[in-house]
Write a structure and sequence with these properties.
This is Putative integral membrane protein. The longest helix is centred in the first third of the chain and has 30 residues. By secondary structure, the chain is an alpha+beta fold. Helices cover 59% and strands 13% of the residues.
Length: 434
């Protein structure tokens, strides 16, 4: 008989007792301090007054205009994942994801700014012969698209590549940046696809050779190995790394009968992520992914599961409302078209595996006409940043919602009021009658 998987009737807490929590926090702090000191040593090396050579990969390249003259802005990432921006007035070809040698020196930059990015004065820029190991994969996508913009979108979806300003503006204005930027949402979809593909072959082999094995334990391990390989391909992209670490811990906790999907577990994941990668604290994608998971846990905690379709719609609606104030603290763009993000988020679990299949079949350009139409659309928008007192109060109330269902629904009312305010502001600025 195939063994059944059962949850522990009394799940063990992630960490029990003040001593365990104190030891874990202290241990995480030691790792954090060690890694932060390593980054500080790198900072001191770049802070030297004399020019030096920097070997880096160009992560982003775009043209800007200033004073009637055009120049290129280049985003560089060195071997230790430090980010620099530089400019060039040369007529450069497309150098995105090429390795370069930059001779120059870092502009005046504090250590805390260095954790995010600094400007690098470039005296000489030379191309290195080495190409990215992902080039064959990118070429596979490029060959299926006559328009470079469509290829850029898919390379962002599949490989975590940066989108160009045109796609970035569309994503920000329509509120779908979380779908284009790879995160835990994509990990969940890819894990489900991989589990489905492995299920039947494993069952076939299990019945004949190892009926004593537990299907869910083994496939869970195989899926995690597959996702780790994908994490390496993404070069440990922060939001996906957080999601993978959470999935790996969830698997281990399940094997040990430890409570899953708790706020304690989220805290452990965040602390471990920051301990090993201190610069994640300045990564907006990582921060927003943590908030996203936090509000998912709040929803699951306070909203009872009833009809599956109603629950699915309510989930996407609540995530949209709960994340609004947080997102606008970092990104100011608002348009009424953002309300479409609720429906788009619901469709995305079907869209993502569909476009993967289309590319595997060599039909990747099937939706290109639609993308060209979207890029050509003129979407009106306004800009509004969440004031920091409102943001701080909202975050504190969010922590309070862990213990109070009433506060959770107050947060939803805040979300409705916030979007109502943005809609009225939009109509006023654009002169639209309400």
């Amino acid at each position: 008989m195939r063994p059944r998987i059962q949850s522990s009737p009394s799940p063990i807490p992630v960490l029990s007792g003040k001593k365990e929590w104190a030891f874990f926090i202290f241990f995480s702090f030691l790792i954090f301090s060690y890694n932060l000191f390593g980054i500080y040593q790198d900072y001191q090396g770049y802070s030297k007054s004399e020019p030096q050579a920097l070997q880096a990969t160009i992560k982003l390249q775009y043209r800007k205009q200033k004073g009637g003259k055009s120049y290129f802005v280049l985003k560089l990432e060195d071997r230790n994942a430090h980010i620099f921006y530089t400019t060039s007035r040369q007529d450069l070809k497309d150098l995105i994801y090429r390795d370069v040698r930059v001779f120059g020196k870092m502009a005046e930059c504090s250590f805390w700014e260095f954790l995010k990015s600094c400007y690098f004065h470039t005296y000489q820029l030379s191309l290195l012969p080495k190409e990215s190991y992902k080039k064959p994969l990118r070429d596979f996508i490029d060959k299926q698209h006559g328009d470079a913009n469509s290829a850029l979108l898919y390379k962002a979806l599949f490989f975590g590549d940066r989108v160009n300003p045109a796609w970035r503006n569309i994503a920000n204005v329509t509120g779908i940046s979380h779908l284009i930027a790879i995160s835990g949402f994509h990990l969940g979809l890819l894990s489900s696809i991989l589990f489905f593909l492995l299920f039947l072959p494993y069952r076939f082999l299990q019945k004949r050779f190892f009926p004593y094995r537990n299907l869910y334990y083994d496939l869970g391990c195989l899926v995690l190995l597959g996702m780790f390989g994908y994490l390496v391909l993404l070069e440990f992209q922060p939001a996906f790394f957080r999601a993978f670490l959470m999935a790996a811990l969830a698997y281990l906790f399940y094997l040990g009968g430890v409570a899953l999907f708790s706020f304690s577990m989220l805290f452990v994941v965040v602390l471990l992520s920051l301990a090993f990668f201190p610069s994640f604290a300045w990564n907006v994608g990582f921060v927003l992914s943590v908030f996203g998971v936090f509000y998912i846990f709040l929803f699951v905690r306070h909203v009872p599961k009833k009809r599956i379709l109603l629950y699915f719609f309510g989930f996407n609606l609540c995530m949209f409302l709960l994340m609004g104030i947080v997102v606008h603290f970092y990104f100011p763009y608002f348009s009424p078209y953002q309300f479409l993000a609720i429906s788009i988020s619901m469709i995305f679990p079907l869209y993502f595996p569909l476009v993967i299949a289309l590319h595997l079949l060599g039909l990747g350009d099937a939706l290109d006409p639609f993308y060209l139409w979207v890029l050509g659309a003129k979407i009106p928008f306004i800009e509004f940043y969440t004031p920091w007192p409102l943001f701080l109060g909202y975050v504190l109330a969010s922590f309070g919602a862990i213990f109070s269902r009433k506060i959770f629904f107050v947060l939803l009312l805040f979300g409705i009021g916030f979007y109502g305010f943005l809609l009225l502001r939009f109509c006023k600025i654009l002169g639209i009658g309400v």
